[in-house]
Amino acid sequence: MILADLHTHTKYSHGGNSPAEMYAAAQARGLEIIGFTEHSPRPLGFDYTNEYRDKLTRHLPDYAREVLEIKAANAHGPCRVLFGMEMDWLEGQLDFTRASSTAYDFDYLLGSVHFIGPWGFDDGAQPWKDMSQEECEAQYTRYFEAWERMLASGLFNIAAHPDLIKIFSVEQFHVWLAKPESLALVRKGLAALRHSGMSMEVSSAGLRKACREIYPAPPIMVMAAEMGLPISFASDAHVTDDVGYGFARLASYARAFGFREYTVFDRGQRSVYPI
Q1: pLDDT value, residue 58
Q2: Which of its termini does the chain have fewer beta carbons within 10 Å around, N or C?
Q3: Looking at the domain that runs over 4-274, which CATH code has it been given?
Q4: pTM exceeds 0.90
């Protein structure tokens, strides 16, 4: 059974609900831990079509204050709060990322790749529709090269949605992933994850996206299991209905690959819970 959702967002980025509403949803679903991981700020040049950067930057102190108030009020309650952030790995922006990761006294940090160079590849499906298989595969390779650099940085605790890159091109992605050289590239990233003491997120968010598939895909789960990597669970919730979404399915999925426990990070300490 999964009782910790370690990846959630709020109205202060592109979510739809307040921290208090997200917390109430976690309580209603019987979760024992909810991690608030609002997006990190981004510098200009790493932009989305429907950009929320200004709102997020303006309200980041409000987000931190509200989450910490909920955390303090429920320190001994049935659902514990962890204060985190989802940090974007942006090429050439290591100093910016380091500063963002220490802006508050976070309990833990997610690391994720949403940008290949300056392109936010999850911004919409159209660019992917216009790509050939070869062009898609070049982007997958660039993504996992950046992913490895992110994991090797040592800045983060959990690798969020490891194969997010498949979001708008899942069939092409599986063609690429079946190749020995692609598996070797992903395995190299997983080795960096293990060396950095991180866990790999298993996320139901893909079930709600165009790919209609759990993150990460089965071949990556197989490699992670073979390497004995720790995993964590998440919904990547952006509204209250998403909190704890598909967790029974995630539990079955993980157990099918031999996983029997999951990891929660809290201020550098790793706790393990049975699935």
Answers
A1: 94
A2: N
A3: 3.20.20.140
A4: yes
